[in-house]
Specification:
This protein is an alpha+beta fold and 148 residues long. It has two helices and eight strands. The radius of gyration is 25 Å and the shape is globular.
Length: 148
């Protein structure tokens, strides 16, 4: 009779361990390996113009870089920026998951226009050291210049 509580405790512990093992969250599927290449990738691009002729006055240079795994890093001129990029046929480009830090900046609206340009970009064109983004309606969103 004295062994019954010990046996019952052992059974409860075993059941708890079994339930814990079964109730675990499955690992998230691994992100597929992406290897981007081309003249846009592994290059720092500095903001030149918004639209066809507007220069922004920002506290620091706005820039971005896409690495070969599709990760985007950069600055909108006020805040650090991170996200993902995909390249497709016919110079198709898509920026996703863009996020910025939330530093207070007097030119916050202008900085948001930089991020907005990237989020809206649909196609790109490279001419020498210049990169131009176009929206889905083929309107020029802005231009970037290859950094030295």
């Amino acid at each position: 009779m004295k062994n019954k509580p010990v046996a019952r405790l052992g059974l409860v512990m075993a059941a708890t361990l079994l339930l814990a093992a079964c109730g675990g969250r499955p690992d998230a599927p691994a992100e597929p390996e992406v290897s981007l290449s081309g003249p846009v990738v592994e290059q720092r691009w500095n903001l030149l113009l918004v639209g066809t002729d507007e220069r922004l006055s920002l506290p620091e240079p706005a820039w971005f870089r896409i690495d070969e795994s599709g990760r985007v890093s950069g600055s909108d001129g006020c805040n650090e920026m991170r996200g993902r990029a995909r390249l497709g046929e016919n110079q198709r480009i898509e920026f996703t998951e863009l996020a910025t830090t939330r530093r207070a900046c007097p030119q916050g609206e202008e900085a948001a226009r930089v991020t907005g340009m990237l989020e809206t970009a649909y196609r790109f064109l490279i001419d020498h050291d210049r990169l131009v983004f176009f929206g889905p309606d083929q309107r020029v969103l802005g231009g970037w210049q290859k950094a030295n």
